[in-house]
Each structure stands twice: as C-alpha cells, then as structure tokens.
Amino acid sequence: MAAVDHNCHPLLASGSPRSALELRRAFTEALDPVVIESHTPHLVAYRHALRRIAEALGCEATEESVLEARSRVDADQLMQQTRTGLLILDHGYAGGDAMTPEQHAAAVRIPQREVVRLETVAEEMLHAHHEIGTWTDAVTGELRARVRRGAVGVKTISAYRAGLRLSVPDPDLVEEAFVELHTRAESGLPVRLEGEPLCHTVLFAAAAACAELGVPLQVHCGFGDPDEDLALTSPLGLRPLFVDPRYAQLQVALLHCYPYHREAAYLASVFPGVYMDLSLAIPMAAHDGARALSEALGLCPLSKLLYATDATRYAEVFLVASALHREALAAALGGLVDGGWLSQDEAVAAGRAVLAGNARRLYRLD
Amino acid sequence: MAAVDHNCHPLLASGSPRSALELRRAFTEALDPVVIESHTPHLVAYRHALRRIAEALGCEATEESVLEARSRVDADQLMQQTRTGLLILDHGYAGGDAMTPEQHAAAVRIPQREVVRLETVAEEMLHAHHEIGTWTDAVTGELRARVRRGAVGVKTISAYRAGLRLSVPDPDLVEEAFVELHTRAESGLPVRLEGEPLCHTVLFAAAAACAELGVPLQVHCGFGDPDEDLALTSPLGLRPLFVDPRYAQLQVALLHCYPYHREAAYLASVFPGVYMDLSLAIPMAAHDGARALSEALGLCPLSKLLYATDATRYAEVFLVASALHREALAAALGGLVDGGWLSQDEAVAAGRAVLAGNARRLYRLD
Amino acid sequence: MAAVDHNCHPLLASGSPRSALELRRAFTEALDPVVIESHTPHLVAYRHALRRIAEALGCEATEESVLEARSRVDADQLMQQTRTGLLILDHGYAGGDAMTPEQHAAAVRIPQREVVRLETVAEEMLHAHHEIGTWTDAVTGELRARVRRGAVGVKTISAYRAGLRLSVPDPDLVEEAFVELHTRAESGLPVRLEGEPLCHTVLFAAAAACAELGVPLQVHCGFGDPDEDLALTSPLGLRPLFVDPRYAQLQVALLHCYPYHREAAYLASVFPGVYMDLSLAIPMAAHDGARALSEALGLCPLSKLLYATDATRYAEVFLVASALHREALAAALGGLVDGGWLSQDEAVAAGRAVLAGNARRLYRLD
Q1: Which in A127, A326, C347, C350 has the greatest CB count within 10 A?
Q2: SS3 of chain A: helix, strand, coil, percent, to 5
Q3: C291 contact residues in B (CB cutoff 8 A)
Q4: What tens digit of pLDDT does each residue of C329-346 get?
Q5: Which DSSP letter does residue A354 get?
Q6: Which chains share 3+ C-beta pairs under 8 angstroms with B?
Q7: CB of C148 closer than 8 Å to CB of C215
Q8: CA separation (Å) from A313 to A37, A88, A89, A91, C117?
C-alpha cells in the first residue's frame, strides 16, 4: 500500500551522487572524512544498500557501476518505486543545494506536506527581538502562521543542540544566554541556538503551541550524527512534556529512538500523545534496525508506531530505506503471526496502520 | 510442575471484569483513559491475551464474548489452570475492592503467603511518631512483627516514589521532609511517602531489617505505571545495598527489570544476594518479554531467576501471565539446548529451579 | 585462520586449576565465595564451558574429570588449539603467580606482544614525584619508553577506579587527591589510584601520549568484576576523547562493552579512531554474548570490530573463549548472508578482518 513517510528531507537539486564519497555520505551518520573513506564501505548497511540500488538500476553492485547507471535515471522514477503516498518533509535540514518546497513538488510526483524545524525558526527570529518573552512569542507566532499555511507539524533537534534531559531552565541562565546570542545576531554574525537554557525554553514554548494547534511535535531521539552526545538523547528525558498538565493535549512523535527504542515504546504504551518510529535505524543499523523494530513492538501499541525513512538528498536513499522498512515490518509482524501472537488479519491491519493509517490520524491528513 | 508465583497481587472481591475497559486495564500499565480506550486494544500483548482467555473459556476472541463467558466462570477455576503451587501476595497494592488475605485464602484453593509493602507500613506509622528515629524503628519493628506472623518478605516501590538511585540521604533534608509529612499526618490529612530523603531512609532501614530477619527485599525495578520515571529505575542504582557490609546478608529480588534486565542479570551474576524476575515484562511486553528472558539468561545464574506473574485483580491475568511465562521459559531453555549451550537434563533442571526451586530456597518455604 | 587476540592476560605459572573453585573463578566475574560456591555452577556459560573443555580433553563433563584430565595436559598444547597467531597480553593484571613476559614467551609457542596498563604505571611512579605535573610527565614518559621497547598499546581500567564519565577534573580536587596519595606512597604504604580527579587526569594525559605515539588506548567498558559500578562504564562517557581536537589522532579500542555494545557500535560508526570488541561477553554471557555481537554489527563497521578472549590464568579459558568467539562471529555473519545483508564473499572477508586484519592494521603489526 502507499505509505506515509512522516519524516524525510528534500532531494538535492543537483540530482544523483557524483562520487563514491557522496554516495557513502548518504548512508552514514559519520561526518569525518576518514570514516567515510575507510570505514563506511565496511558497514553492513552500506554493503547491502549498494546491492539494492544496483538491483533497481540493473547494474553491478560496485560504486562505479551504480554511480554511472544512476546518472542516467531520473530521481522521480526511483521515488515512484518507493510506493509512497505522501512525503512529510523537513526542509530545515538541507544546505544550499536542496530543492525548495516548490522545486520539490515539481520534481517529485508524490503529494508533499511540511514540518517546521523549530530551531531554524528560533534562529531566524532572534535578531528582531530584544527580550526573551517577545522572542519566544515571535517563534510560536511563526509556528502558528506556518501551520495556518499548511505545515502539519513542528520538529525539534534539541537532541543535537542541548540534549533531551528536560527541566525548566533557570531564568537567569536563559537571560544570560539570550543576551549573548541576541548580541551576536544584531551584529550580523551567524547564530546557532544551542545549550539547555535557550533550546529547552523554545522547546517548552513550541510544545505548548503544538498542543494548542493540534499538530504533533517531532523530536529527534537516539542516534544521529556526532554533533550530538548520544548519552543525552534518551526520550525518557522528555518526561516533563508527558506529565505536566500544560501539555496534556500535546502529541509527540519520537523519531529514530535507537538504541532507546524499548524506552520509547514504553512511553508510547502509557502516555496518550506519544508516537514513535524506527527511521534512521532502518536502514542505517541494517539487520539490527529490523530487530529493534521487533523489540519496540513489545510495548508500543500497533496504533502508535509510524513509518518513515528519514531519507535525504538522493532518491536512492528513499528507495533503500523504504524497501528495508517494509521488509522489517513484514518480518516483525510475520514473526508475530508465526509465534501465535497475532492473527494473520491483525498483522495485515497492523501493517496498514504503521505504513499509513497511524500517520494519517496523527497528522489529520484526511 | 506447580510453580511458586513469588510476586502477585490479590484478586478483586467483585470477581470478573464487567466491561471492556476493566479488562483492558488489567493488561496495561497505562492509567490514561485515552490510551486504554484507543491504544491498549492495539497492544500485541492484549490482542494475544484476548485469544488466550477466549480459548480457556471456549468462546470467541472478542471482548464481548470474553466478558460474557467469563462472568459465568469462577475465579478459582481459572486459578487452578495456572498450575500454581504457592502464591506470594502483596496485599499492599489493591484499592478498596481487593480481597483481604482471609477472603483470598477462602476463595482461591492455592496455598498463600504474604510480603509486606514497605511504603504502606511507613505511611501507617507516621502519625504516631514525632521523630525520624522512632518512626524508622517503628517501621522496622512492624516489619519484624509481620515476618514473625508469617510474612516471607518485604517489598519496596521506591521506584515509584523516589527512584532507585540510592545514596545516603542528607540528614537535614530527611528531617525537613519528615516534619512536613508528619505534620500532615497529625492533621489527619492523607499522606504519601515520596522523595529521596524519606523513601531512601526507610529503604535502607528495611534493608538492614531484612538482612537481620533473613527475608528477601523485593524491589520494583524497570517499567511500571507512568507514576514512575523509568530513567530512575535501573537496578544498578541499588549498588549501595550490594557493596556496603551492613547489608552483606541481604537478599534482594529484583522485580520486572525490563528494559534493564541485562543489567539485573549482571548484578545477579556477581552479588550473592541478588535474584531477579521478568514478571510484568511477561506478559505485558509480549514476544519481547520472552526475548528479554533469554537475554537475561546470558549472565543470570539459573539458580537466581525467579518466576512470577505480577498478576492482579482478575484470574484471567494470572492465567495468561502464567501460560506465557512458562512458554517463554521453555522457549529460552529449549533454544539453549538446540544451540548446544545446555544439555536436555540441565534445561529440565533449570526449568524446575526457575518455576519453583529458586523461590523455595530464597523464601525458605520448605 | 590464525587470530590476533588483542586483549588477553598471562597464564599462571602454576599451570592447571587445582580445584573446582579455581576452575569456576576462571569463568565468572564474581569474586564472592558464596556466588562461586553456589551460583557460578548454574551459569549457562559455565555449564557449557565444562562440556567444551571435557570434549577437548576427552573426558566426562564433570568438574572432577576435567580437573583430573587437565592436570595431565600441557597449557601450550591447549593454547595451540585456539589457532591464535598473536597474543597481545596485559601483564598488569595478574597477581603473584602469573608468568612474567619471559616465562610466558618460553611456555607458549605463540608470538606475543604487550600492552601497558596505565594505572599500574601511574601507581609505580607516584612515590618519586612531588608534583602532579612531574608525575603525569613521568607516567607518559614511561609509556613512551615501554612503547619504544615494543609495547603495542596502553590499557586503562579507569572503569574500575573512577568510572568513564569523563570531564576535565577540577585542579583543586586533583591537587588534593594527589597530595593524599603521594603522602601514602612516601610513607611506603600501598597506593591504589582511584577517583575521578587522579584517574581522569592520567587518562587524559595517556590519551594525548597514545595519540602522539600512534598506539591505541584500550579502555575497559561495560561489565567486569563488582569493583566497578556498571552504571558508570558506558563508553558514551568517553566522548571528550572523540571530539576534542587534542585527541584527533587517538585510536581507542573499547573492550567488552556489554551491555553497552550498541552504544559502542555507534561510536565506532562515526568517530574515526574508535574500535570495539565483545570479549568477556563472549564467553561469559553465553548465547547473549553471541547475540550482542550480532547487535553490534548493526552499526559497527566490519573494519572496526576486533577479536579478543580477555582470557586469563588458564589455557582452558583461552580454549573456550576462542572457540565461542569464532562460532559467534560465524553465526552472526552467516545470519547476515542468510538474510541477504551480505554476500558470501563479503562475510568471509569480514570474518578475516575481525579475527586478525583489523587488529593488524590498528596495532601496526605488519
């Protein structure tokens, strides 16, 4: 069935990868050139991805052949093979060469919606506001405006910028950090929102706004690129969002989660607004991403698991991630049928729910 | 063989569940009505439990059929199907409708013993004592008296009330917290023991008393209902109980443990007094509870794993939990035989030990 | 193929185990006599090890038969059966009865190299230096000298002595701890380096020295004997070593890792200098050690996983650990071939890399 990919990123305008290094970068969270040169080729996930892409392109499973064959194939043609019914795109992470929403809609014949990246908005709003309060109001005002214009959710990458061990920030530290960053912004220097005081302040403000707007807050959890300290990214740190009555209506989509997916599944089992996915772990963690999906289904209700690729830049990433995710889901659900845990009908219904139904309900897509 | 269920709770006097919501509440740690209404039915564990109960009752696997068929079946009749030789009951968690020990013994034809819930005793003793020292003495005195009258162990739910990151509490904070709570108690207001200073003070005192009395201290670890912060419930936080010579004779039964079961198994492998179970994870975490049991057997000696259902309220919970626990154990041990890790005889002996022998030795039941 | 065992310890001069208790101590991290007397015999890993050794010796799988048969077999004869091409030995952990490097080289016909145990060097240098700075200089000077004389790496057991949550120690606390320990050393009292201020100071100094010398720093991570607090031993705490430019050239071998092996694999996937092994977990965690190896291969590049036994004292430990490690690796890689993740050729190449190639490159053995 046509899936809803609730968390992915735009393709590059430049099209297909031009070198082996570009191809490898698409299948690892590593940023270091030595890793990509010497170790990424030895990832199980990368070895497998190469073979998958080669199969789709009808060429040999070598980097040279894949790059050559790929340069003659249109991105949209590969995107169609992912059997995706809707892309929910985060345009906040991209870099200069990423397609704009308009370009993307024109280039890829799959319906598309947007989520707003919180930290990008917060950074953009910084130079125009002299006080914390007016700044956070401006940020939530912008989120409201973007949702009014069609955005279906908000995304935070606080995991990278401050970690996820939430507590109410000390107002003095918030003030101090704000003055420093605002001064930079006013001087025209580039600003990067980071540190608990500011990041958690805007995160709490955005959570309240999302609760009010009725759109989910996507939270990057678990592993990612080495800018983050993995020790600070367990979704258990988000507990204040789940127990404080101010956020009672908030819906949170925990993204990636690995290796904290059992913890994420627990949260999904007891808190009404918590959803989760295993994107990024599938395909990056190869067979162990598939095992993580099965582990998560221990506690996560079948109505709370979401499908996503977290793919970015190249259509082949969508292709590999979508195929592996469907297979991991089929393997996990098939195993549950074989083990007598679910009936065949329940497993089929669960597959449909995870691939599309849960996201359609959560993001109010119908 | 007849199992020793070393950690379970009394049935309700009202008998069978009267509604789908009551039935669902029995198979989830969620408390939120939205979760129970909309998501608990989509738990793998709940889908499976429905089918198990329907099979036992000879009816269709729908909530309506199960509720109807169940209303005509006696709780004790289902309890007999669990093949349990002894129930070790925690009457401290119940609510008004739970059977008293006397009612329970009359209603269920299975031998029964009790564990004392520490926090309940500590709350009851609060109004009569004006000083910390006399209060904790009264608490341990009551534990001693209850053990003399037949209790086989003490149980702590510090995980819910304060977390398990034990350290010696600051005396000033203890005093302050005590005065506040005692004042409430004297005013006739309801009191709830919570926070590290008081909870850990009574936990250390109870640990010393248990060591002296020769009865195990049961400690809720890992997941549970959302009152607890899962991040604070790893059994690794209990280390002071394992390395401080004052508690050298203490025996601790780590309950549930998931998803910290590998950590619990490690503790069981190196500290003489540490035992563990996978109750609650089986049946709540479905197939992943069974996998967790296999994971725990990596380090946990076969002489240290205990069997329990953590069942409560309804006989069908005992029925499902006991069946799944036996199957998980059979699968794990069978897998070890298939993999050449254990001989058939060793696996059979291990099964007997886990189902009953280990608990009989630990609780001195013979 | 002949493996490189990059992390193991010397045999005892006294030869084979003389009692069941000695045999059991070789297959557990427990130190407590009650555990070893009553529970170690019930470890899956120990049951299995007994059978393995009995098979190799052609005797019955009982402790008595094994001890008797073993007393007639030469250690070197068993060591040859491990098909090891090189032993990288840590002579720092041993006790009085361990063979010296010279004795070991004479007794075991397998090429041998050494790693230097940091904490042992730091303790030995303590009495001769009155200031922190000259002491750490002397420590790194000794590391340099030992590497010049042939040592291929440095090993830290900071996990036992201070935990692995690294941050730059407070200079005042460092000074205070140094004065106290130095005073003990000057008085001729035995000294034990422990606590974050001193342990992390020498760890950072050693890391800088290793980076400069081009030799890897081995770091004990994850489980071990109960001297350590497992909660403090996640390799994620080592992040300062991976992101601080001062250590850009540092190569780190994360030893053992269990149950933090998914975290270790993540670090290996993004940081160029991070390698890991599953020693100790294999064989101590039996089947779950093998599962951990498969889990680690989710993110860990095949070029970054190392083979080791962590064996010590008796040749039978080398025998069992080496056999189980090869089998775990074969099972994990075979599973990847069966699941379509790797080709047969890739799996074979990966096996060779893990068993020897990766270590040969990392330790510059060729």
Answers
A1: C350
A2: 55, 10, 35
A3: 295, 298
A4: 999 999 999 999 999 999
A5: I
A6: A, C
A7: no
A8: 19, 15, 12, 11, 46
